[in-house]
Structure formats: C-alpha cells, structure tokens
Amino acid sequence: MTDAPSSALVVDTDGGVDDAQALLMLLGAGRVPALVTTVFGNVALKAATRNVLATLASGGAGHVPVHPGAARPLLAPRIEARHIHGEDGLGGAPRPQNHAPAREEGAVDALRALLRKAAPASVDLLFLGPLTNLAILLSLDPGVAHAVRRLVIMGGTLEGRGNTTPAAEFNIASDPEAARIVLTSGLPIELVPWEPCRRHVMTGDEIEAVFAGASDTEGRRFSEALALHARRTNASYGAGDVFRFVDPLAAALLLEPAIARRTSRASLDVVLGEGPGRGMVLVDPSGRLGTPEVLLLEEADPARLRALFAASVDPAANG
To answer: For the segment 245-283, what is each residue's pLDDT rounded down to a tens digit?
Structure first.
C-alpha cells in the first residue's frame, strides 16, 4: 500500500530517537534512501551522523551513503535536545558493533549532484531536522528545485504553540532563517506540524504487543530500546505511557500519501528577529501572506500508522 517508489529518496536528519524510528519505518516498507544527509539538531553533527550510520546498519541498510552537512544554523546560536533524546541522541539504544563510515562529500554537494542529474519531479525529499542543508542548497543553486517531486517536512505548528519556545517547534526554532528560505521557496511541500504528531499515538501495551510478536534480532532490540526511551520521555512530561508518531508520521506520509485523512493548504512564513515569537510559523489559509501554498497534514489513518510501525520491527507485518 506504500507509494510506488519510482523516484529516488533522500532523507535529511538530525539523528535523534524519532529520526531513527522514521528511518526504520522507511526500511521496513522497502523504501531505501538513495542517500542520507545529516545536520545538527537533536545532537551535534558528529553524533547525529554516528546515529544515522548505526540506525542504517541496524536496519540492514548499512550500504546507504551518509553525507554530513551543516554543523550550525545560518545565523542563530545552536540548540540541542539531548534532554529528550538522551546524551547519545538514541536514548542509549544498543548499537551494531560495526557500521560503514560517513562519506567525505558533504551533504549539500551530494544532494546538489543528485538533483542536478535527476529528471524533473523525480526525487522525493524527507526532512526531519533543521532545514539548514536545503536552505544552503537553494541559495547556491535554486535551479535544482525542478527535480523535486515531493518535499515532506516534519516541523512547525498549526496553532503557534511550540514545543521549544511558547511559539516555535524545535526544528524551526533551531534555524528560523533556513526555515523561511525553504517554507517560502515554492517547492512542493507537505508539512507535518507538531500538533498532529502529539495526537497520533500508540499505547505502551500496543507497542509491547508489536515487539512480543517479532523475532529476537539485533534490529528488534534496537527498535524496542528506542520505543521504550520515547515512552519514558513522554511519561516524564505528563503524556502517559504512549509512543508519539513524530518523525515517523512524516515518514508515513512520504510512504503513503493516502494515509492523510484531513489536510489543509496555506501560505506560510517564519517569524525572524528577536523576541518570544522568533521561529513561529505563520499559517495563513487566506493566502494574504503571498507566499506559495503548502499542504499541511492534520489527521492520518491510525490503523495504517500502526501497520507501518509494526513493519519497521518486522517487514512481514506490513499488510
């Protein structure tokens, strides 16, 4: 039921727990990225890159090239989220003993080369962290935009209630200048904001049932540790024993556009400057902002989300 993988896929990620879960969801559905680029965010760039290499190895895709990208925002001070993802960014999940090294070619150059060689509308992009790498690329070579078929982004909010500041979601707050460049670029953007990520959950019992039915493999143990860390973190913030679909919700939309039950379209902008509104995504369904409209995911099919998660643990579970 996944979207036919007729186009190449690039994933850009800041290497946290939910980023790893999103990568495993893609692999479980058979959608192996052509390459992965990394960026600062949840943890520093080197740690994010190590985490992605470990995740790909755990998911049996250690051959996928990984290209390190931006280590800092365009202008803003760098922030991290180790209090959410653990000191190592993966909640202490057990890692494969061996994995491939990162490539020497940087993220922007690797993505630029792939897009410049691609046919029009033939590459899908999934961005799960700060948008710095793509903002740099669009500033250097805006012509590469012709190759992008879909750009799915986890970031921003629908209602201006942030998870990092009162107004801003973490990925946008990490580099508001980069976010403005990308979100107003006119690319075919599908945005997965913070609010639906909070609403789409599996209970602890549902998660444990998935792992109880899976074979005891290195990959299963890795995935289970990620899920347990996410559940404990959510509980510590008063959300209860639940697993939230954050980056995996964006991966699910990339895999299955029909998973969207309710969407809207709006013009967007990002608040810059100083003050409590910095990093807030302005959402204007009326179009008065004058920026190109993007699609916003508001609700997804929970049964398909559960199935895609199960397949990330055991690919045979994907019906």
So the answer is: 999 999 999 999 999 999 999 999 999 989 999 999 999
Backbone dihedral region for residue 62 (phi beyond 0: left; psi -120 to 50: alpha; all else: beta): alpha
The CA–CA distances, whole Å, from 1 to 10, 28, 199 equal 20, 13, 23
Structure tokens that stand for 128 in this block: 């799960």
- Greater confidence, 82 or 35? 35
Is this model's pTM higher than 0.90 or not?
A: yes
User: How many angstroms separate the Cα of 295 from the Cα of each of 151, 229, 250, 255, 318?
Assistant: 10, 31, 13, 16, 26
Q: What angle do CA 134, 159, 290 make, to 5 degrees?
A: 55
Which residues are bridge partners to 67 per DSSP?
37
Contact 19, 36 (CB under 8 A): no
Bridge-based pairing of strands 281-284 and 260-270 is antiparallel
Beta-bridge partners for 66: 36
Q: For residue 198, what is the enclosing H or E element?
A: helix 194-199
End-to-end CA distance of the chain: 8
Tell me the one-letter amino acid at 160: G
Task: Extract the tokens encoding 199.
Answer: 């609403």
Whole-angstrom Cα Rg for the chain: 18
Q: Which two tokens stand for residue 12?
A: 């850009």
How is residue 91 written in tokens?
A: 């909640």
Residue 145 burial (C-beta neighbours within 10 Å; 0-12, 13-18, 19+)? middle
| The two structure tokens encoding residue 275 | 């003050």
CB contact at 8 A, 134 and 178: yes
